[in-house]
Model the fold of this input.
Amino acid sequence: MTEFAELDRRVAELRRQIAYHNERYHTLDSPEIADAEYDLLVRELIQIETEHPELASVESPTTRVGAAPLSATFAPVVHRVPMTSLDNAMDEAELAQWGDRVARGLAGSPATFVCELKIDGLAMSLRYEHGRFVQAATRGDGRVGEDVTANVATIAALPKRLPKGAPEVVEVRGEVYMPIASFEALNERAAAAGQPRFANPRNAGAGSLRQKDPRVTASRELAFWCYQLGEVIGGPEFTNHHQTLDFLGELGFPVNPEVRLVDDLAGVYGFAAHWQEHRHDLPYEIDGAVAKVDLLAQRELLGFTSRAPRWAIAFKFPPEERTTILRDIQVSVGRTGRTTPFAVLDPVFVGGSTVRMATLHNEDQVRAKDVRPGDTVIVRKAGDVIPEVVGPVLSLRVDGSTPWQFPKTCPCPLATELVRPEGEADTRCVEPACPFQRDQRVIYFASRGAMDIEGLGERTVFQLSDAGLIADPADIYSLTAEQLLGLEGFAAISAEKLLAAIEGSKARPLPKLLTALGIKGLGPSASESLSVAFGTLDSILAADETELAKTDGVGPVIAGSIRRWFAIEANRTFIDKLRRAGVEFGKVEVSRLAPVLAGKAVVVTGTLERYSREEAELAIKARGGKSPGSVSAKTFAVVVGESPGASKITKAQELGLPILDDAGFDQLLESGELPVL
Done:
């Protein structure tokens, strides 16, 4: 086969695949591949057609937007002004290339740009006539969409009537989306009813808009951000885009607050880079940023291609969802005996790193998702969280596939029978001598939040375990240089550093030691309270359940867990080994600062100038206050630094809580009082 014939065959195959996936995504709301895979197909086709114009065609999906509506449920709507798509830039270099094209199209005239968030939702056109909401239509193929008026009318944030003086006709373009909180609630309801879970908020939102019964749509709690005017009759004249956004806000439409006017591409890239880093601070999902030329006259000069405006570009963030093959399902065992199934995957780059394994949480989740070895699955890694398998692509499931069965015995050499207590979601290994549990207990004991032993990570713990040098965490205090030098990767200096770190951990404060014990329910906050209340580990050992429960932040459940843990002979033996090793049992760091924040909960979000997050929380606690991770009606104040969590700010505003900056935080720490505004 000649090179040209091979290219022609590849073009035909790409067009077939893209058309198929367009229909799955835009028409059926049931995509089989992640957006990243789809983008790669389109970009490959564009590259071939650009380099070989003789292979281009007006029938190519690169010249069209989305997919034609095929539903008999919703009537077709012809867009008076076409709803085009956007071209994409995947990195700074491609953004610069777009900027060069804009500059050439404007003959070198300077341009300013409006930056907006790219909402991961469903494009929508809303039409108002004489101030009344009359129609909502999907984008469809850009020329013809579907009438979803009754369903969109259930979105509470959309005005049903416009204020007096509104234009005779106003068409508003924007994005319908499902907030993350609504998505999580929807999946919880689905799981409780034994129904399939939605893969992501975008699919959930699109599916909600295609319901025959608007009452179902209303229950899904959709939302809307507008970003563009379409057809306008009898309205004011505008010279730039940001004026139109202000106008839409005045009419009562929800306009996203994260809009920035910048002077150059450096500003565009800075905006995109910021939100790529902070995308998970938002209560809704975004998959990029959008840059638009601001002056409308310049837009007229630049015009459109067959599918997209030349005056706008979408800067796409790295994908957080990809498809790959699930090769096997295995089970890990934690320090408490809890067993967690996980997927062994064909390596796939997602969320900024290569993923080879992903959690499946528990037996019920595997059953609910119905993932099986051999499945093509969607893998998600949002932010820095552990990667997870969203679900299978059922249309690609191999014939003869059978559901995965949870193992009956522990995968450790002891092969102990696994037990799932009645009413619990977790299956456990209840054998205390399980070597997998032992290793995880040592890893947890040495972790940063516990005894903080630098150099004693998973790899080293597994080495020590395989060599038979540790039977419990206390054994690390009897390790010798000779023993370490017998392990692969250890030399004199590295052995000396690890032994020094182990020795230094003996003087950790009592809260760290209590946390390191790994008692169920006993975290850092309750450990601090117990340390202040009792002073030594021996006093806590001697206290009865009632005394423990009276401690702030402990209560009867944790108190009972503590007493049961100390009642086990093996645990008491472990404590004696720590004592003989010289671990301090009574190092309590008592603050000498005035307790000006006693009984007050102060939440910190974002990056402060003079404090790290941990330092700010310690400063609050040193003055008698609490620093919870979430905002509630009991919160006294919220301290906001740079790049804060949007959900925390929103919650604080809803509750009418005081919001403090760095200076306000300093005053609060000094006096315990809110600054006078």
User: Anything to note?
Assistant: The mean pLDDT is 87. The chain has five domains: 3-63, 76-316, 321-398+405-415, 435-581, 601-671. DSSP finds 24 helices and 21 strands in the chain. The first strand starts at residue 76 and ends at 78.
